[in-house]
Design a protein that fits this description.
By secondary structure, the chain is of the alpha+beta class. The chain folds into two domains: 63 residues, Orthogonal Bundle (Arc Repressor Mutant, subunit A), CATH 1.10.10.10; 178 residues, GAF domain (Beta-Lactamase), CATH 3.30.450.40. 47% of the residues lie in helices and 20% in strands. The strands form two sheets. Strands 6-5-4-9-8-7 form a six-stranded antiparallel β-sheet, with helices on both faces. It has a three-stranded antiparallel β-sheet with strand order 1-3-2. α1 packs across α2, α4 packs antiparallel against α9 and α6 crosses α8. The longest helix is centred in the first third of the chain and has 31 residues.
Length: 269
């Protein structure tokens, strides 16, 4: 942990003591951090080998390198993506009155990054922000799973059923039927992880073929008898398109796709 803390201190100092040309002197970095000059030098030379920093050989000065700048751009991109996702989730909850969630795709899971409760008196709050939900277990993560080819999707289902007791209670064929229904209808529909709740979800794309996650609405089943299903599906459709368009410069870039990333002939985009 001490090494991590020192790394953070040195990187911060590298940014704060730099001159107008972006260079920071080794001595200034050491003085600002209070870390021995030799230790600072070892960190900087190691980062130089990785492309994180560059060295001015004449002046023994350092500045951030291209690899670190790439990481910074990636972080900025993720920050913008999450900001848009937050607006999407809030809009879904406001439009429908139901609990809305955003899942970020991560390996065989979807991480709940945003959750917003709607105005309906009964809300679904079993999934919390930060929870890792196996792909296929909830409607939002089922929508993510549906964008994969069938072989890859079923391999993930098999592995997730082995590690998740609730998923293991349902058969492999049940999940295959869910995937096929998602491909057919263009959205995921699944009984919730608690009785009396129905989940609806669609995948979110940050670019062509680039699945970033999924959004979902957890709806109390009694509401669906009041024609609420159409309201839910329309809201998901609108917000999925808004997410893609916002990240890609506007409606002119919208792809001819259904919500879960499949064309109407059920072939993957």
């Amino acid at each position: 942990m001490q090494g991590v803390a020192r790394s953070a201190q040195i990187l911060r100092a590298l940014a704060e003591v730099r001159n107008e040309d972006g260079w920071a002197r080794l001595a200034d970095v050491a003085r600002m951090t209070g870390i021995h000059r030799g230790t600072v030098h070892r960190f900087l030379r190691a980062w130089q080998a990785e492309g994180w920093v560059e060295r001015n050989e004449r002046g023994r000065c350092y500045r951030t390198g291209p690899a670190l700048l790439t990481l910074s751009r990636t972080a900025a991109s993720q920050s913008r993506l999450l900001s848009v996702a937050q607006r999407v989730v809030e809009a879904l909850a406001e439009e429908t009155g139901d609990t809305a969630m955003f899942f970020l795709h991560s390996g065989h899971n979807g991480i709940c990054m945003e959750r917003h409760a709607g105005s309906y008196p009964i809300q679904f709050l079993a999934i919390n922000i930060g929870d890792r939900v196996p792909l296929g277990k909830a409607a939002g993560t089922l929508a993510i799973l549906s964008t994969l080819d069938d072989l890859a999707a079923m391999q993930i289902i098999d592995e997730n059923r082995q590690r998740d007791g609730a998923m293991a209670q349902l058969t492999r064929e049940h999940y295959l039927d869910l995937l096929q229904a998602t491909h057919l209808h263009g959205y995921a529909e699944k009984d919730g992880v608690v009785p009396g709740v129905k989940g609806f979800g669609v995948a979110l794309f940050s670019g062509p073929r680039q699945v970033i996650g999924g959004i979902s609405l957890a709806v109390i089943k009694d509401r669906l008898q009041e024609g609420h299903r159409e309201v839910v599906l329309k809201a998901l459709n609108k917000q999925a398109e808004y997410f893609y368009d916002t990240l890609n410069g506007g409606p002119k870039n919208t792809l001819p796709r259904s919500l879960n990333g499949w064309n109407h002939d059920n072939t993957a985009l």
